[in-house]
Each structure stands twice: as C-alpha cells, then as structure tokens.
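Deliverable D5.2: sample structural annotation.
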Amino acid sequence: MTATALPQLFAEFGNTPDAPPPAEPYLAEWQKAVDRLLEFWNWTADWDGEGAAAPNRAALRGALALVQQLRDSAASSPQPRGPQFLDRPPDRLLPGREGEVILEWQFPGSGYAELEVLDATTANGMLVFADGRPTRFEQVVIALASAGIAGESA
C-alpha cells in the first residue's frame, strides 16, 4: 500500500458530518506539524530520561515527506477526499522509544489512527476502534520525493 492509498486504509472511520472543511484553514497547522518534526532532528538518546533511542533520521525524513505529501494533497483538493482526517494534520506527532516517528489522528468516540514511520520509505498503520472491533494493522510504503532538511545530507 502506498501513502497515496492511505484513504483506503483509514476509510473505516469514514466521513463525519461535522468534519471541518479541508486544507486551507489548516495551512498554519500543517506548518506546525513540519516544525514539530524538525524539533526532533536534534534530540539525542535518552530524550525521555528512560533510555529511549534518538529519533531515527531516516524515519524523520519519511515523516516529513509524508506530512508534506498529505499537506500538498489536501491543499490541491477542493473537496474532501475520503476520510477527512487526511485533510488535516495529525493531532499528535511524537518520537517512539526505538527511534520511530509516530503520527496520530484522534476520533473522539470512534478511536484513533496511527502511522509509525520506521524509515524514509516504510510506516506501519494501525486503526484502534473504540467500539470493540479488532485493531487493524497495515504496512504502508511511503512513495516519496526526497524530503531534504536544510544543512543535512542523506
């Protein structure tokens, strides 16, 4: 599954009638997501005081490229494209304990969707449902253009 197929993976959450409009109102929020990921760039091992690995730079490049791809896709679409959470930035961005980067979208009363970016091209997708349906896992291949970071070489 490619990142452009994410709407299929997360379609089980569906569209909600009260979902906000796509893209443009979120441009500042998309930038905050990019800025937050860039904050992780210089975090070192033990950032949590409990021995966590430093955020993996390849995972950060993958997460940045994914966020930029979703932002650009949302901005170019005049209508919601499916699960409307893809039209808005993740609700949470955080490094994982093993160096991965986690993007999470919350759906109050329904559950949450999470992408765990492992490197520059691979993420694991997870859907957790509040209604007791089994958690669903998928591997996602991130089709990326280069997500270069100023002053950093691949």
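Annotation notes: Strands lie at 92-95, 101-107, 111-117, 122-129, 136-141. The radius of gyration is 15 Å.
The annotation will be released with the project's public dataset once the embargo ends.
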